Amino acid sequence: MSLKNCVQIPLDLIKVNEIFKKNGFNAYLVGGAVRDMIMGIPCHDWDLATNAKPEEVMKIFHRVIPTGIAHGTVTIHIFGHEIETTTFRTEAEYSDGRHPDKVSYAATIEEDLSRRDFTMNAIAAELGTGKLIDPFNGIDDIKNKIIRTVGSPKDRFTEDGLRPVRAIRFASQLGFSIEENTLKALSLPEVQEKTKGISVERFRDEFCKILKTEKPSIGLHILEQTKIMSLFIPEFNVCRGCIQKDERGFHEFDVADHLFYATDGAPKDNLIVRLAAFYHDIGKPESCTTELVNGVEHIHFHGHEKISERKCKASMTNLKFSNEEIKKVSHLVLEHMFYYESVWSDAAVRRFIIRIGKENFSDLIDLRLADIYGMHNFPIDPNSSTWKNLLELQKRIQKMEDEKSALSVKDLCINGKDLMAIGIPSGKQMGLILNELFETVLDSPSMNEREKLLTLAKNIYAEKLKFNNA
């Protein structure tokens, strides 16, 4: 981490600054870009603050889009960049918990920085020199990896209901701690009320950003601890304290922590699998039963995958995920308890692929590995029988793909037109015959030849006619 009194300003921004200066205005780089520069993280999104009013910015640059002109914000399109530019401003009350009721232009960059959320985001860099303006000691907080509000936490959080969720997301994203008073304020009733008022889409977007971090369990734990999780994903509440551990040693944690750690174990770049990891056992509390085996209690969760699928769909629908995302995630949740054995016949493997969808197989394996990770907060042992078992299944499926095995009616060597050509009329009967042909090929791939299937189709049709005329 480079903590100096200045940062290196990109050449394109230096050119932008020259245009501002030439027209008698000052401009500063602000927000997350400055924070990331201080931390040595590459940044590509730039936000500027300037003493030029929006209409003046629109005069001195060739292409400017009035994206938020009511709040003093326009977007400059220049040198292949889209640079959001806002006039120095102060803000009044936030009646809707998200947007200021009134925006007033400020005279200085320091006044503008005073309205921002966290000290680490309230640092500006002069575009000409890279010199840092840090009125709230944000550099020290970055150095100490602390998230602290600018001024009173209660005031900042009741101004904008999204800020509490952003604080948690930053903690997870950056690996920072939330300063004690700031953390306490997240649970204040008035702060919770403001947070509850934000749109579910805004929470969902921040939730997804948490899931995409290196270790999402950090943010997920704070969401639960502050009861913000309850506001938007109430289905999760019963997972805390639902014990899974018994003498068999399958699980170390309760369902809540298991879900958090399973999410850590899912691939960072695959949001679908991380969502599935978060939801995959959310139905366990409803399915929990116990059994005495030789005087020792065993805990069971028979059928929990079906309950988890239902709760996953309900939660994701409430959070307004797309239908496609809901379909993919809930399907993985439903199928995550698959159990493969070497004794499976090739036909059984083919039927397994058809049931889960070959396009979902890789995600399902990743979910299984995440599930195993979440059992002890540790990745699977590559020498374990479970890992070898999964590898064997992968190889068998890959072999079938290489052999171009028929995995749907569309993969048959004949189609409806071929059946019509031999006198089988289109309609329900043709569909039934095609399905029978497919079932035959599933069991005997060598039957997937044109002449063999046509002969079989004729025989099936003749039998059906004979049966129907009897």
State the gist of this model.
This protein is an alpha+beta fold. It has helices at 11-22, 32-39, 54-60, 109-113, 138-143, 153-159, 163-174, 180-185, 189-196, 200-211, 217-225, 228-232, 255-265, 271-279, 284-287, 304-318, 323-335, 346-356, 361-376, 385-402, 416-421, 428-443, 450-469; strands spanning 27-30, 47-50, 64-68, 73-78, 81-87, 89-91, 103-105, 124-126, 132-133, 146-147, 177-178, 289-293, 296-300.
Q: Which labels suit this protein?
A:
50% helix, seven-stranded mixed sheet, two-stranded antiparallel sheet, 470 residues, alpha+beta
Walk me through what this model shows:
This protein is α+β, with helices and mostly antiparallel strands. 50% of the residues lie in helices and 11% in strands. It contains 23 helices and 13 strands. Strands 3-4-5-2-1-8-9 form a seven-stranded mixed beta sheet. Strands 6-7 form a two-stranded antiparallel sheet. Strands 10-11 form a two-stranded parallel sheet. A hairpin with a 4-residue loop joins strand 3 (64-68) and strand 4. Helix 13 (255-265) crosses helix 19 (361-376) and helix 18 crosses helix 20. The N and C termini lie far apart (85 Å).
Low-confidence stretches: none
The counted number of beta strands is: 13
Helix content: 40-55%
Q: What's the helix count?
A: 23
User: CA-to-CA gap between the ends?
Assistant: 85 Å
